[in-house]
Amino acid sequence: MLHQHSNARGRSFGFGIAQCPICSSLELIPVGSVFDDRYGCPDLFELVRCKACGHVMTSPSLAEEELASLYSTYYPRKQTDTAELAAAASKVGGAAARLQRWLAGTDNQGQYSVRPGQIMLDVGCGNGLSLLEGGRLGAEVLGIEADPNVRSIAEELGLRIHIGSLYDQPFPDMRFDLIVLNQVIEHMPEPGKTLAALKERLKPGGRVVLSFPNRGSALRRLFGAKWINWHIPYHLHHFDAQGFESLARRHGYRVLRRRTITPNVWTILQLRTLLFSPSRGVPNPLWDIRPPVDGTARPSPVGPRPVAPKRMLRRFLRLIGLAGMTMIGRGIDIAGYGDSVFVELGIEGSA
Questions:
Q1: pLDDT score for 15
Q2: What residue segments make up the domains of the chain, in order of their start?
Q3: What is the pLDDT at residue 54?
Q4: Please, what sign has the CA dihedral across residues 318, 324, 327, 332?
Q5: Residue 25's pLDDT is what?
Q6: Which partner from 4, 34, 212, 270 sits 20 to 30 angstroms from 113, CA to CA?
């Protein structure tokens, strides 16, 4: 069992992990020291693996009250362009949009499962794009977000977002048809506690839809320690599909459907990690992103702008590469080894 410790700069950060959230084993094995290779948080962490079930966690974990400070300091939502968000949300409807999301691998978002007239809660709604899209699809939408930078975005777009935690009991008189956690459950210090709290907010027959990075993916196996979705220290739990299903069943859920999805932009960013050697405490230029509009990072251009003929050739080669990447990515997804798990849960015993 690992205990609270201080990093090399003398900062006490979070608390030690007492037990595995999936199987409750106390036998946790350190497997390597890790640091923030994106945004430059200077603290040193460790990956630990449960000896009994294989679940991997970040240690020391973060306390719930530390999340707001961490995200407001390091996450890049201060750059969000609200006009661009609104424009992106306006394209959500129709068969062509669904096909485009499937081809791009961006259909790993729970808001696309909402039905007209339903009430949707997005826990960890980020910049609010999911709420704009859910509203466009005919739902009443509310969100929860730990990052205080989102407050101004919510005010500008007229979105109902509680800045804080699920455990603050926001929107206390409301129950929801759909609760969405897009790339969020891995950020939660106690994911079992989160799943238990979500059950209390569902209407009868309600659903919880989650997506999270897949530790069992082909890209994780290929890139190992350079896999982009370790994302330390923001990702506290590193699930595979089977481990998460065990956790969900333990808390009274049943799995309604599950698949894996690999966003093309994740694959591009993963390949570009080969060009960079991150240093602890220093922001990585790979993640010097443009304002995100779809919940995923946009890689910045590298190098000078080429002259027109070279631009055309590069664009042609990029299209060929993207087509090949799309075919391979969708094939890997169908085989169950995609980089993100998408899972829909219902309450055990409910209709």
A1: 44
A2: 67-267+330-347
A3: 96
A4: negative
A5: 93
A6: 270
Q: Note the pLDDT of residue 290.
A: 46
Specify the pairing of strand 161-163 against strand 140-145. Answer: parallel
pLDDT of residue 323: 87
Query: 241-276: per-residue pLDDT in tens?
Result: 999 999 999 999 999 999 999 999 999 999 999 988
Structure confidence at residue 131 (pLDDT): 97
Report which residue type is found at 114.
V
3-state secondary structure the chain: CCCCCECCCCCECCECCCCCCCCCCCCEEEEEEEECCCCCCCCEEEEEEECCCCCEEEECECCHHHHHHHHHHHCCHHHCCHHHHHHHHCCCCCHHHHHHHHHHCCCCCHHHHCCCCCEEEEECCCCCHHHHHHHHCCCEEEEEECCCCHHHHHHHHCCCEEECCHHHCCCCCCCEEEEEEECCHHHCCCHHHHHHHHHCCEEEEEEEEEEEECCCCHHHHHHHHHCHHHCCCCCCEECCHHHHHHHHHHCCEEEEEEEEECCHHHHHHHHHHHHCCCCCCCCCHHHCCCCCCCCCCCCCCCCCCCCHHHHHHHHHHHHHHHHHHHHHHHHHHHHCCCCEEEEEEEECCCC
Instruction: Decide: residue 254, CB within 10 A, 0-12 exposed, 13-18 middle, 19+ buried.
Output: middle
The tokens describing 96, both together, are 């062509």
Residue numbers of the chain with a pLDDT score lower than 70: 1-17, 75-79, 289-310, 313, 316-317, 350-351
Residues 6+ away with beta carbon under 8 Å from 44? 7, 8, 33, 34, 35, 280
Q: Which architecture characterizes domain 67-267+330-347 according to CATH?
A: 3-Layer(aba) Sandwich (3.40)
Query: What per-residue confidence (pLDDT) applies to 240?
Result: 97
